[in-house]
Every structure is written in structure tokens, then in C-alpha cells.
Specification:
The chain is mainly alpha-helical. It has helices at about 1-10, 15-20, 20-50, 55-80, 100-135, 145-150, 155-175, 180-195, 200-205, 215-220, 230-245, 250-255, 270-280, 290-305, 335-340, 350-355, 360-370, 400-410, 415-420, 425-435, 470-480; strands at about 320-325, 455-460, 490-495, 525-530, 545-550.
């Protein structure tokens, strides 16, 4: 019903004429009768059960009524599971699925509903016993004469209300626990899938030293056997984690090659007992990084390399990759007064929460700033410009707050953090090209450009309506990510000035009327594209590379994802 109402709201009379035809009305009436049959059969069962002591014939019909009720309910359940939508609501044909996968899906849902039914049966029996012990009124088991006689009594009415609340709560829990059983079943299915992908080698999965096997597996599965290229790539990975304040210098030295011919201590093989003690008993290890995020990255990489992965493309024969990031009004960078110190007189400010949650990383950030390393790694500031003020935020200077805001931005849900993470594809593809390129290709050498195969496209719906601080942050994002060049682009919607009221607009055949403008349209809309290399005016706005006119008003829905389709141009 809600789906049909939403479609009528969007398509207006076009769908309304289709849904209100005689055939559709007859189908809807037949469907309503079909879905009402379980209620009718249930009422018949309750009626025969209540009067079976008074009428012997009803006692004989009770098993038949129960069988009919279960049959109708099972038919309705199967029809909902197999035919979930009407033909009118099916916007596109279903995706072809192999028979084996279809059987697995139906078995999965059969297990979920079987568990739900068994638990529901236990709960209903328990509630029924509770109502019997509490001596509550069971309206469904009382005759009409008893109800018409006792309904005016206050004690009987209170008992009915208590019984109704108890059964309504039970029915609500019965409906709501489907999500719980779905999550539990997905958890078990995910574990079984992991073991199936690894050939059910549970012992090897639990006992192998996956960290020590990272170099060999990376060389075999990613670099095509070129072992000489792995140290340089791995050192770049470790350097980036050190730059993110995820590990200190000692941990960096244990993980990086740093020009040494032998493997780092991180890749030193250890015995099974040592690994189990480190993983499950939380015993410290001098070669294992302390930061939980670094640990997760290493474990995810080691386990991923243990799975069968497709053979990588040989550079420069890469397929095109475009990452589309929708943006409406989310923060690009965090601000000192608006975000980090907001409400510090009444509540704990956000910066205190971040420094408590990322205590070790903030200490590494302070150490890096005191060494004079700024976030962009291109400008070194003397250590005398950075004061050691701890968490006394009022003592920090404005230039110091700029670095603190950027550090906090990379640990919150901001646009810059998302874009910076996606733009890591750029140096990764360049490193893969340097290590595994086709030497005799005409596309190699000076012709190669990562921007030709990778694009990070941010669809900013409100770019032309940005406030000065938002425009400044957008330009700052382009500046911070200038190393990716043309790979970072922004698409936005622009419009011309309003033509005027309908009575003041030129006629359709008037030469003064702008071309391609409908008589009921007051603005012209364009899809524009900019990047970090575009020219900027005095106010900071960038001149678009492309400006494509759209056929009309581009905002089609309420969701952010529905309004970014213009960026695909």
C-alpha cells in the first residue's frame, strides 16, 4: 500500500489511471478477499472451539477447520515469499539466478521462519499459561452470553485490558524478532562462507602465520612474481600510516624495510603458541603495532591475500574507474568554534572526546607538529611555533588550530576524509604501474597518466549555494589533494536567473524567448564540472570545464542519491 501511494505521488495521474481501471480494481478486490481468508478461517476455528461442548457436530468439524486454516495460511505465506509484488509494481525483470543459489536462498528464509515459528509457539504457550495463572479474562474463550452479561463490570473490563495489553505486546515482539533471526542467520552463513572459500581448512586458517606470509603472497598474487618491487611499495604503506599518526617511529622501523636486504621484524615467522598468546591472550609483542586500526589493516590484508583473488591487470591496460561521492550539506572540514569547541560551557566538547578516543594518535600528532611536519608534508614549520599545551585548548594559536581541525576532520564523518580515502587509488595505481608495467607498450612512459583511468567525482548539489566558508573549504580540499591532479573533480548544478512570472514571459513563438525553455519553466539548469586546475575568480568560484544544459528541473526525489544522476554526464 505504501509503495503504491509513493508511486502515485511521483507519477500522479498517469499511474492513477492504470491502478483505478476495472481490471485493477477487480484484481485488488480478489487479492483482498484472498488475504482475508486466514482471518475468516481463524474465526471459524475459534467459534468451533468455543462451542464444541454445546454442539457435537461442531466438535467433529473442528479438525477440518484447523486443517483448512493452516492450508490457507501456508498458501498465503508461500505466495508472499515467491510472488512478493504485483506485475504493476515490478519496475524491471528479476535478475536471473542459478538454481543452486535460488535453493540456498529459499532454504535460508525457510530456516529463519522456522526458527521464528518455533520461538513464537513457545512464547504464545508461555503467555497463555501466564494468563491462566493470573486469572485474566480470556475473551476468545467466553461465550456471547457471558460477554453480554459481564462487560459492564469494572473488574471484568480491567481484566480484558490487561489481557489485551499482554497479547498485543506478544504479537508486536513476534513481528519484530524477524530482524534478530535474520542477523543471527547471516552471521552463521557468513562464517560458513568464509570456511567454504578457504576450502574448509579450519585448522590452517586458525594456525597459519598469515602476517609472515604477506610478502610472498603479495608478490605472487599482485606483483606477478616481481619480488624486488615489494619493499618499495610496503615502505610507502608504512610511511602513510606513520603520516596518519597511526604508529610511532619504533613501530615504523619494525614494519618497514628502510633499505635493508632482510625482511622487517613484523614478517618474522613465529610459533603457533606465540601467535595464539598474542591474539587471544592479549600478551604484548615488541614487533606487533599497538594501534588497533593498524592491527585491523594488517590482519585484513593478510586474510584477504589468503583468498583466491583475480589476476591483476597489467599496466597501463587498466579499466576506467570512477568513484561517485554524493554531497549535500555535510561538513567538508571541521571548524574550531562550530564543531570542536561547541557547547563547551554546558557539555564536553567534541575535541575532548576525540583526544580521549584517539589518545595515542593525538600524542603522535603533537610530536609530529613539534618536529615541524605539517599535514601537507611540503612545509616544515619550526618547532618553536607549536606550543605544548596539552588539552588546554584556549592556549593554542589560530595557526595551530588549523592543524588540529584537520587532524580531527580525518577522524570524523566528513567529506574530506571520504575523498582523501578514495583518492588513495591514485598513488596505488601509480605504484602498481611503476612495479608491473608493460615495458613495450606505446601507452607507457610520458603518455601514462593515472587521471586517464581513475576519477574521484564529488557531486555537490549545493555548490553554487555555498556560503563563503563552505567555498573556502572546497578550494582547500582541492589544494590539499593537488597531488592527484585531474583525478579529483566536482559536479554541480547551476541555473540562470529567473525569467519572470508566467504572465510576463514571452510567447512561445516570440524571438525574445530563450531557446529550449518551456513556457512553464522559470529557470534554465546546467550540469557543470570543475577540478583543481580550473581558473578561479576573485570570490573563489571556479570556471567550469563543461556546462551541459539539462532538460528541466533536475531534483527528482527527496533522497540525496536520487539527485546526483546529472554527474554521470
Amino acid at each position: 500500500l505504501l509503495w503504491s501511494m509513493s508511486r502515485v505521488e511521483l507519477t500522479s495521474a498517469a499511474l492513477l489511471r492504470r491502478t483505478l481501471g476495472c481490471v485493477c480494481l477487480l484484481r485488488g478486490l480478489a487479492a483482498g478477499v484472498l488475504w482475508a481468508l486466514p482471518l475468516v478461517t481463524y474465526a471459524a476455528v475459534r467459534y468451533a472451539d468455543a462451542l464444541q461442548n454445546e454442539d457435537a457436530q461442531l466438535r467433529e468439524y473442528l479438525p477440518t477447520a484447523i486443517a483448512v486454516h493452516y492450508t490457507v495460511s501456508i498458501i498465503g505465506f508461500v505466495s508472499l515469499l515467491v510472488f512478493p509484488v504485483r506485475h504493476l509494481d515490478r519496475l524491471w525483470p528479476t535478475t536471473p539466478v542459478p538454481v543452486r543459489l535460488r535453493v540456498v536462498r529459499y532454504f535460508f528464509w525457510f530456516v529463519i521462519f522456522a526458527l521464528k515459528y518455533m520461538l513464537g509457539l513457545i512464547v504464545v504457550q508461555a503467555v497463555h499459561r501466564a494468563t491462566t495463572k493470573l486469572d485474566l479474562v480470556a475473551v476468545d474463550r467466553e461465550g456471547w452470553k457471558e460477554v453480554t452479561t459481564a462487560w459492564t463490570a469494572g473488574s471484568w473490563a480491567s481484566g480484558v485490558i490487561q489481557s489485551a495489553l499482554l497479547w498485543i505486546s506478544t504479537f508486536f515482539l513476534f513481528l519484530a524478532d524477524t530482524q534478530m533471526w535474520f542477523v543471527v542467520a547471516c552471521t552463521y552463513l557468513g562464517v560458513m562462507t568464509v570456511f567454504a572459500q578457504r576450502g574448509c581448512e579450519v585448522i590452517r586458517f586458525a594456525s597459519e602465520d598469515a602476517i609472515a606470509m604477506i610478502p610472498q603472497r603479495f608478490v605472487d598474487k599482485v606483483l606477478g612474481g616481481k619480488a624486488s618491487a615489494f619493499p618499495a611499495i610496503w615502505d610507502k604503506i608504512v610511511e602513510h600510516m606513520h603520516y596518519e599518526d597511526k604508529c610511532h617511529s619504533i613501530s615504523k622501523g619494525n614494519m618497514a624495510f628502510s633499505g635493508r636486504p632482510h625482511k622487517p621484524k613484523l614478517f618474522k615467522r613465529s610459533k603457533c603458541g606465540e601467535r595464539w598468546a598474542k591474539t587471544y591472550c592479549c600478551l604484548p609483542s615488541p614487533t606487533w603495532p599497538e594501534n588497533s586500526d593498524v592491527q585491523w589493516r594488517l590482519l585484513a590484508l593478510s586474510r584477504g591475500l589468503g583468498l583466491p583473488i583475480p589476476k591483476p591487470f597489467v599496466a597501463p591496460y587498466f579499466p576506467g574507474l570512477t568513484v561517485l561521492i554524493p554531497h549535500y550539506s555535510e561538513s567538508i572540514f571541521l571548524l574550531k568554534d562550530r564543531d570542536l569547541l561547541f557547547g563547551q560551557d554546558q557539555t564536553v566538547p567534541l575535541i575532548d572526546w576525540l583526544t580521549t578516543l584517539y589518545k595515542d594518535e593525538f600524542q603522535l600528532f603533537i610530536n609530529r607538529m613539534q618536529r615541524g611536519d605539517r599535514a601537507d608534508k611540503t612545509v616544515r614549520v619550526p618547532a618553536t611555533l607549536w606550543n605544548d599545551n596539552g588539552t588546554q585548548w584556549e592556549l593554542y594559536k589560530e595557526e595551530e588550530w588549523e592543524s588540529i581541525c584537520e587532524w580531527a576532520t580525518m577522524r570524523m564523518q566528513t567529506l574530506y576524509r571520504t575523498v582523501a580515502g578514495m583518492c588513495l587509488y591514485h598513488p596505488a595505481l601509480q605504484a602498481h604501474y611503476n612495479a608491473n608495467r608493460h615495458e613495450h607498450s606505446a601507452l607507457a612512459g610520458e603518455v601514462w597518466d593515472v587521471s586517464d583511468c581513475f576519477t574521484c567525482l564529488v557531486s555537490m548539489q549545493r555548490y553554487k549555494a555555498f556560503r563563503p566558508i563552505e567555498l573556502e573549504h572546497c578550494n582547500r580540499m582541492f589544494k590539499k589533494l593537488a597531488s592527484v591532479g585531474k583525478s579529483l573533480k566536482v559536479a554541480y548544478i547551476d541555473n540562470t536567473r529567473q525569467v519572470g512570472l508566467a504572465s510576463e514571459r514571452p510567447a512561445d513563438d516570440s524571438p525574445d524567448r530563450p531557446p529550449t525553455l518551456h513556457r512553464d519553466q522559470s529557470r534554465r539548469y546546467f550540469s557543470c564540472l570543475i577540478d583543481g586546475l580550473c581558473e578561479t575568480d576573485e570570490q573563489g568560484w571556479r570556471k567550469p570545464i563543461f556546462r551541459v544544459e539539462l532538460p528541466g528541473y533536475p531534483i527528482l526525489g527527496d533522497g540525496k542519491g536520487d539527485n546526483q544522476n546529472h554527474a554521470i554526464i
